[in-house]
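Record Fructose-1,6-bisphosphatase class 3, 239 aa.
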Amino acid sequence: MFDRYAREAYFYKKDKNVKNYAMDIMWYLWCGQHSPLFGKNRITTFERYFIEDKLTHIEEKNTYYKLINDEELSNRIFEEFHLDKDCSHIINGHIPVKTIRGESPIKANGKLLVIDGGFCKAYQPETGIAGYTLIYNSYGFLLTSHEPFDSIRKAIEEEKDILSSTIIVEHGMQRKRVADTDIGKEITVRIKDLEKLLMAIEKDLLMRFKKCHPHDKWQVPVIILKIKGILLKQNSFYF
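=>
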């Protein structure tokens, strides 16, 4: 539903009323008190710009910020999506982590990770760093925190670079390979089909098929061979 409103807000041109309503929905999703995407009781951008009293800057967070620490809830979400809870993770972005106050981006006993690019200088006094980068490779999860970057001039004159420190979130005992991925499993099925086809060619079964069906062309769009109860299907074969 929200996807439809987003498209109407940006692209709809036939009816101005429809477009304006969709734009109102998008605005509410951004900063509305009960928006499922905002997560706070109000937005205090105006107060931060024009009022010095920091009490007016307070934005009360909703229960989402408590539930992200609940490991059992994360496991229930994994079950809802038919995922293995022992190796699945929830990744939430665009949420500044206040490292300077001891806050950790790793929640719910490692099941949920909260990260933010954090290069925005306005957040750096609150977070204490310039954000995180989440790295996933065949070895596991790595979380890298970055020190703030002052300026290109300072980097050249003082030979300073962006310093980073890395935390190993999860390291697999066995390295993941292509065959372990979803695409790898699809490739494995195709390889097995090709191996069966090769076996059929080697045993001259395709020539026998041709003799039994003399009117078929050599280019067969779909060949179905039953070899010892195995059904082979390929989109296009050329002999």
